[in-house]
């Protein structure tokens, strides 16, 4: 099968498009013919060897894909060859990839393969942040950073659907415009404007109930200071740095809560997919690339020159 893999960390040029053997399928695994695989920032971190990532060469990236079931392991029930599915698995930058059966879900009817491939990682993470950690309530005000990121495009839609008021940040007017189209009420250009000042202006000095964040160091202080007393801060990533200064006194005296998000459960994913099936949330596909152009897709991701998700088509 054709796949994109790398043997050593480095710039996008380390990605090799070539024929490799098909992946082995364990008893509880499902082999999927990949029609679409979305990029996650983790792919870039792994390829460049940053953020504590590790790999065993040759390594095929891609945890987030959609396609048709080719074959199921001997212990798998309820999934048949030919089923149209989405999966959180391994080796999605390839014509065939494997996922554990518990992480394979039916492709929602209204989704294309491209849209389906955006859901398992970014969508589930946003679901976790909004529903299970922050537990966003109607009427609350939520500050969401990096509005153009995969995670935040889902978080904006979820918060809007819940009846919360969203303030989104992004590094361009174009992204802020697109965030408004998804339901954000206000936009802050984080490269040109002061996040804290703008939040205070929008909330009449009160601050926000919730911050949903994954940029890290450069925006931490402004985001933390943006919380109103009793506010909740949820982080799922540290794209631009993980070290911050935290004033513990301000946490307890203002009754703040800081929460992290790990990997959601299959039950969380099924709950999220119900909302997708109802048409309340959708995956935003910025651009698709043939699998052979995976390196170009990585360059676009590194340049942050996109809104939503980048998708590879084997
Ligand atoms: N915990 C989990 O299970 C989990 C799951 C998924 C993702 N994550 C993490 O969540 C983060 C987002 O992932 P993703 O794939 O959705 O992201 P993505 O699409 O790669 O996010 C890109 C966005 O990050 C912003 N950004 C990047 N560097 C920045 C900087 N130095 N300063 C300000 N903004 C910056 C950019 O905003 P502008 O260009 O507009 O400035 C860009 O829109 C990553 O850290 C990822 O590892 C965690």
Summary?
This protein is of the alpha/beta class. It is built from 10 helices and 15 strands. Helix 7 (217-225) links the parallel strand 11 and strand 12.
Structure class: alpha/beta
Strand residue content: 25-35%
Q: Which ligands, by name, code or SMILES, are bound? A: NADP nicotinamide-adenine-dinucleotide phosphate
What count of structural domains? 2
Q: What is the tally of beta strands?
A: 15
The amount of helix comes to 25-40%
Q: Biggest sheet: strands, sense, closure?
A: 7 strands, mixed
Rg, Cα atoms, Å: 20 Å
How far apart the termini lie comes to: 10 Å
Description:
The chain is an alpha/beta fold and 314 residues long. The protein has two domains: 2-118 and 283-313, Medium-chain alcohol dehydrogenases, catalytic domain (Quinone Oxidoreductase, Chain A, domain 1); 122-260, Rossmann fold (3-Layer(aba) Sandwich), CATH 3.40.50.720. Helices cover 30% and strands 27% of the residues. It has ten helices and 15 strands. Strands 3, 4, 5, 6, 7, 14 and 15 form a seven-stranded mixed β-sheet that branches. Helix 8 links the parallel strand 12 (227-235) and strand 13. Helix 3 (119-133) crosses helix 9. The N and C termini lie close together (10 Å). The model has no long low-confidence stretch (mean pLDDT 97). The chain binds NADP nicotinamide-adenine-dinucleotide phosphate (NAP).
């Amino acid at each position: 099968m054709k796949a994109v893999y790398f043997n050593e960390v480095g710039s996008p040029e380390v990605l090799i498009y070539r024929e490799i053997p098909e992946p082995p399928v364990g008893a509880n695994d499902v082999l999927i013919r990949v029609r679409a695989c979305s990029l996650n920032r983790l792919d870039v971190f792994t390829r460049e060897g940053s953020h504590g990532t590790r790999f065993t060469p040759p390594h095929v990236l891609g945890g987030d894909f959609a396609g048709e079931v080719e074959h199921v392991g001997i212990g798998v029930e309820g999934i048949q060859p030919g089923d149209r599915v989405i999966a959180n698995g391994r080796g999605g930058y390839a014509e065939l990839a494997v996922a554990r059966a518990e992480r394979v879900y039916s492709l929602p009817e209204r989704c294309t393969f491209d849209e389906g491939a955006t859901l398992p990682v970014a969508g589930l993470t946003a679901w976790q942040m909004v529903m299970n950690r922050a537990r966003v309530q109607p009427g609350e005000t939520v500050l969401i950073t990096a509005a153009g990121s995969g995670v935040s495009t889902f978080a904006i839609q979820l918060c809007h659907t819940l009846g919360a008021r969203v303030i989104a940040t992004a590094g361009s007017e174009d992204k802020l415009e697109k965030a408004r189209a998804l339901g954000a009420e206000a936009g802050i250009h984080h490269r040109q404007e002061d996040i804290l000042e703008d939040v205070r202006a929008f909330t009449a000095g009160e601050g926000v109930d919730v911050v949903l964040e994954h940029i890290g160091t450069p925006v931490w202080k402004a985001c933390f200071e943006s919380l109103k007393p009793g506010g909740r801060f949820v982080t799922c990533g540290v794209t631009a740095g993980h070290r911050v200064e935290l004033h513990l006194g301000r946490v307890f005296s203002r009754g703040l809560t800081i929460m992290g998000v790990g990997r959601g459960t299959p039950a969380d994913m099924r709950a999220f997919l119900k909302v997708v099936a109802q048409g309340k949330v959708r995956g935003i596909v910025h651009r698709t690339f043939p699998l052979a152009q995976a390196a170009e897709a990585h360059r676009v991701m590194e340049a942050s020159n996109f809104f939503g998700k980048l998708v590879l088509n084997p």
